[in-house]
Automatic annotation (TrEMBL):
<keyword id="KW-0489">Methyltransferase</keyword>
<dbReference type="InterPro" id="IPR029063">
    <property type="entry name" value="SAM-dependent_MTases_sf"/>
</dbReference>
<keyword id="KW-0808">Transferase</keyword>
<keyword id="KW-0963">Cytoplasm</keyword>
<dbReference type="InterPro" id="IPR003682">
    <property type="entry name" value="rRNA_ssu_MeTfrase_G"/>
</dbReference>
<protein>
    <submittedName>
        <fullName>rRNA small subunit methyltransferase G</fullName>
    </submittedName>
</protein>
<keyword id="KW-0698">rRNA processing</keyword>
<dbReference type="GO" id="GO:0070043">
    <property type="term" value="F:rRNA (guanine-N7-)-methyltransferase activity"/>
</dbReference>
<keyword id="KW-0949">S-adenosyl-L-methionine</keyword>
<dbReference type="Pfam" id="PF02527">
    <property type="entry name" value="GidB"/>
</dbReference>
<dbReference type="GO" id="GO:0005829">
    <property type="term" value="C:cytosol"/>
</dbReference>
Length: 281
């Protein structure tokens, strides 16, 4: 959950780095992802990773390498094995791209080559960093509250070499009221952050009128999505589609929920920090 507002925070890399293990790039490159197929209701069965060009695959390998190295000293992911990170984190993140593209082209614009996208509650950079690698024409903003995670994100961006990514530290409730960010993005995405009622209030204030809010959810979010309809409507949007995405999660599939923003979000939203989670709409 996002905790304080700060833009362009100067991180203390030297002090933080000495507690972290040295990177060993050889741990990832021999690995090649399993070809077990993924699918959605609108997307052909495939491994999304295998559709990337060689340089993008190398960048993904570097990202996973750094993620697992830093995860030895700080809590970035509960998954410890390379194969599982690739299958359950990377593939899940890549699976968000086709629904974004399809929905954006159908309802927002004739082109989605240069999207301005925000990943709200980015955590370890999922899905934001993966999206930035796969779609280098997109400008990606990673919003995260925890300073240590922001340090990690800044480091991995520099290590991989991602000129299309920036990190912003702060709470969604505060940043959503900041005119530098409010209704400035074509797309807001979130993965494993909160339930849909809360997530709608976190994310939709960042989306411009005519843009998309895209949430990666679990295998059976029907009740959660239904319960969130009032919150989505209050934020000025409506549910556009719910797309099932086969993945390597314990339940075998995940769901991408896409909402289209038709009206400006009322000025009083998002509410004060902590309120959306304590008193969901």
């Amino acid at each position: 959950m996002l905790v304080r507002q700060s833009v362009g925070v100067p991180f203390s890399f030297g002090t933080f780095f000495k507690h972290l293990p040295a990177l060993k790039r050889t741990t990832i490159f021999p690995y090649r992802i399993s070809r077990r197929a993924l699918s959605t209701t609108r997307i052909l069965n495939s491994s999304y990773f295998e559709t990337l060009c060689p340089s993008q695959r190398d960048q993904i390998h570097l990202y996973v390498d750094v993620l697992l190295q830093w995860n030895q000293k700080m809590n970035l992911t509960a998954i410890k094995e390379v194969n599982e990170v690739m299958e359950r984190h990377v593939e899940d993140s890549l699976a968000v791209i086709p629904p974004i593209r399809n929905s954006y082209l159908s309802h927002c614009s004739s082109s989605c080559d240069n999207l301005n996208l925000v990943d709200v509650g980015s955590g370890a950079g999922l899905p934001g960093i993966v999206l930035a690698i796969a779609c280098p024409g997109w400008e990606v903003t990673l919003m995260e509250s925890m300073n240590k995670r922001c340090v990690f994100l800044e480091h991995v961006i520099g290590h991989i070499g991602l000129p299309n990514v920036q990190v912003v530290r702060g709470r969604a409730e505060n940043l959503g009221q900041n005119q530098c960010f409010r209704e400035q993005f074509d797309v807001a995405v979130a993965r494993a952050v909160a339930e849909m009622r809360i997530l709608a209030e976190y994310c939709l204030p960042f989306v411009r009128v005519g843009g998309l809010f895209v949430a990666a959810k679990g295998h059976d979010p029907e009740m959660e999505v239904t319960n969130a309809e009032r919150a989505i409507e209050t934020m000025g949007a409506s549910k556009l589609q719910v797309c099932s995405v086969e993945s390597q999660s314990p339940h075998g599939q995940r769901t991408v929920v896409v909402c289209l923003k038709a009206r400006p979000t009322p000025r009083k939203y998002p509410r004060d920090p902590g309120t959306p989670a304590k008193v969901p709409l």
